[in-house]
Design goal:
The protein is built from three helices and twelve strands, in the order αβββββαβαββββββ. Bound molecules: flavin mononucleotide. GO terms for molecular function: oxidoreductase activity.
Length: 176
């Protein structure tokens, strides 16, 4: 008999901690890019590294990020304009900087509705569109009001590790 979800082969139940670890490991098999959400809060500027970025709609142009409730950025992001900065392969230190391991001096650019980071692979400046309950996260949707990209390899994240995606595997829009 095959194992049910949440069971080891043979039917033995996972402990809650083991199940959570296995869930995260399973999610980690989905390779993603890496982005930093930047915005101005009431008293300071915020940045938070995410890999939960998703394109949602072309008309209107909508994107989504999923932000954990336990982060300091979570409450401050509600109702605020933000930028999703897509990182290039050489920007891993920046990803760590905004994931609780400070170490570089970010170079900021004043965007039209929200601050963004200099020399990123692509960016999407957004005004707030909606926020939805996502369990221990909130799904923040933004309407894209400005965007751009440059050439270069992409920073990626898979199986809990940073990796890179060569530019030769990106840029399909050139084929359309
Ligand atoms: C590669 C990577 C991807 C991450 N993706 C997310 C994410 O999608 N959503 C999230 O809330 N946190 C994510 N995190 C964790 C946050 O970046 C981290 O908790 C950060 O320190 C929170 O900062 P704050 O509490 O100062 O707001 C990710 C971290 C890394 C390294």
């Amino acid at each position: 008999m095959s194992a049910q979800p949440g069971e080891f082969p043979g039917g033995r139940r996972r402990s809650s901690a083991s199940r959570s670890h296995h869930f995260r490991g399973s999610l980690g098999r989905f390779a993603t890019g890496v982005a930093i959400v930047t915005f101005d809060g009431p008293s300071r500027r915020y940045g938070i590294t995410v890999n939960s970025f998703t394109s949602v709609s072309l008309e209107p142009p909508l994107v989504l990020v999923s932000i954990a409730r336990r982060t300091t950025a979570h409450d401050e992001l509600a109702g605020r304009a933000f930028t999703v900065n897509i990182l290039g392969a050489e920007q891993q230190a920046l990803a760590l900087h905004f994931a609780g391991r400070p170490g570089v001096e970010p170079q900021w650019v004043e965007g039209s509705v929200a601050p963004r980071l200099s020399r990123v692979l692509a960016y999407f400046e957004c005004t707030p569109w909606a926020a939805y309950d996502g369990g221990d996260h909130t799904l923040y949707l933004g309407e894209v009001v400005d965007f751009d990209y440059r050439s270069g390899d992409a920073l990626a994240f898979a199986n809990g590790h940073f990796t890179t995606i060569p530019e030769s595997q990106l840029g399909v829009e050139d084929l359309l």
